[in-house]
Specification:
The protein is α+β, with helices and mostly antiparallel strands and about 250 residues long. It has helices at about 25-40, 70-80, 105-115, 120-125, 220-230, and strands at about 5-10, 15-20, 50-55, 55-60, 90-100, 130-135, 140-145, 160-165, 165-170, 175, 180-185, 185-190, 210-220, 240. The model has no long low-confidence stretch (mean pLDDT about 90).
């Protein structure tokens, strides 16, 4: 069982920020998720919200302020006793992406800067499996780690004022999907027409931190069909349950 040196500090009067070593590692993310499972069994989850991301966990209390001195000590005790229980349901989600040049508006530039052909770029992007390290910036925006170093590329120097919904981008060692129209500075290489976030559903975001994502390429005609299916709510996203080992 991994044990890390934690930083615990107040994040306002209603929240606490717990931080692990400042590294992007699946082992750290797994430790965070295990600690979350421990907290869920010790806290009244009607009063608390837990937000994991990369190397941190934010605990937000609804209602009364947090007694930081008392509660931070309790958190350390729970962490020492957390065990190795992981979330019972983790999934690999397979998402269709159209890499047509009209959608992948930065494809040519990215391929030239990385010194590879567009087909090679697409092949590298679709052969990897990515880990959801965080969800934020926009509701449902997934920060996906695990991008091969061959596709590593900086954010655009000047962000666009408008990035269309479903745009698939690259930035640093990450890839992700814009769940709605937004300004943004990622390098756009394709489009996924499948809605990941719907405020009317419970939960509103299909994917959780700790899940896996794999992209596969589709034609423009398939993209248009999936867009219609997604809009009317009949598209069935392919998901595969990940075997989670118990303690």
């Amino acid at each position: 069982m991994n044990t890390y040196s934690l930083s615990i500090r107040p994040f306002g009067v209603h929240a606490i920020l717990v931080e692990w070593p400042n590294k992007v590692q699946e082992a750290i993310l797994e430790d965070i998720l295990q600690f979350m499972e421990c907290l869920k069994s010790n806290l009244d989850m009607h009063l608390w919200e837990l937000v994991p991301a990369y190397n941190s966990l934010t605990l937000i209390r609804r209602g009364d302020p947090i007694d930081f001195e008392k509660f931070s000590g309790q958190l350390r005790e729970w962490y020492d006793e957390k065990g190795t229980t992981s979330p019972k349901d983790k999934f690999l989600w397979r998402l269709p992406v159209c890499y047509d040049i009209d959608f992948g508006i930065d494809l040519e530039d990215v391929s030239q800067r990385l010194g590879m052909s567009i087909p090679e770029l697409i092949d590298l992007h679709t052969k990897n499996t990515y880990t959801v390290f965080g969800i934020g910036f926009l509701p449902g925006f997934m920060y996906l780690g695990g991008l091969t170093s061959a596709l590593e590329i900086p954010r655009k120097a000047t962000p666009r004022l408008k990035v269309v919904k479903g745009a698939v981008g690259l930035a640093g060692r990450q890839t992700g999907i814009y769940p709605q129209e937004s300004p943004g500075g990622w390098n756009i290489i394709g489009n996924c027409a499948i809605p990941i976030f719907d405020a009317k559903k419970n939960p509103p975001c299909l994917v959780k931190v700790g899940d896996k994502i794999q992209f596969y390429g589709i034609s423009r005609a398939e993209h248009e069909l999936h867009k219609i299916e997604g809009e009317v709510g009949i598209y069935q996203i392919e998901k595969i349950k990940i075997d989670v080992k118990g303690p």
